[in-house]
Amino acid sequence: MSIKRIAMGGLLLALVAGLLAVGLPTIQGQSQGAAYTPQTRNFTVVTVPTLTHESAEAMPSYAPVVKHFGEIFTFFPDVLVVYQGDTVNVTIKNLQIDDPHTFTMSAPYDNVNVAIGPNSEQKVSFKATDVGTFEFYCTIPGHLPYMYGQLVVLPDSMGGGYQNKQ
Ligand SMILES: [Cu+2]
Fold it and tell me: Do 64 and 24 share a structural domain?
């Protein structure tokens, strides 16, 4: 092995040692779970009228589609992402003047279940205690599969750096 090679090897070793020295505290910090301060997450979910008998009246070409599929509404947004421990506030606005909706969640969040009358809004508030993906939907017959969404609760160890703008 030439002196040049030994020198290069030494340089590489020094570089790796340097990277470890700088990088290790970061890696350790992540593996131990950086301290996360639970936040309050505010969402506004609207019931979007995608295809309704009113739209069929306004656009006659929609009439056969409405007749075939019925009225179609959706939740927007349909995915809500929070971290474990967060307080989740959801305002649901029903944009329909003649259709009721519900915002209903599956277990373990099944204490969240509100009816939202036509042209009105309701607020729900709960703590994101369980990590995972959970459903919310509308229980009015015919509104599934369209009025369906998911709450994603991420582990609090992933919660660094999230800035709540609402
Ligand atoms: Cu509905």
Answer: no
Cis peptide before 108 (omega within 30 of 0): yes
* Ligand 1 center to 125 CA (angstroms): 20
Residue bearing tokens 């509308």:
138
Q: Are residue 4 and residue 71 in the same domain, yes or no?
A: no
Structure confidence by residue, pLDDT tens digits, 82-108: 999 999 999 999 999 889 999 999 999
**Residue 84 to residue 109: CA distance in whole angstroms:** 13
Which residues are within 5 Å of ligand 1 (an ion), measured at CB?
101, 138, 140, 143, 147
Query: In 3-141, at which residue ranges do the beta strands (DSSP E only) sit?
Result: 40-51, 72-76, 79-83, 87-94, 101-105, 113-116, 121-127, 132-137
pLDDT score at 30: 45
Range of the domain at 97: 40-158
Whether 146 and 98 map to the same domain: the answer is yes
18, 49: one domain: no
pTM of this structure? 0.74
Residue that has been written with the tokens 């994101």 in this structure: 128
Gap from CA of 54 to ligand 1 centroid (Å): 16
Both 77 and 152 in one domain: the answer is yes
Residue with tokens 């020094």: 14
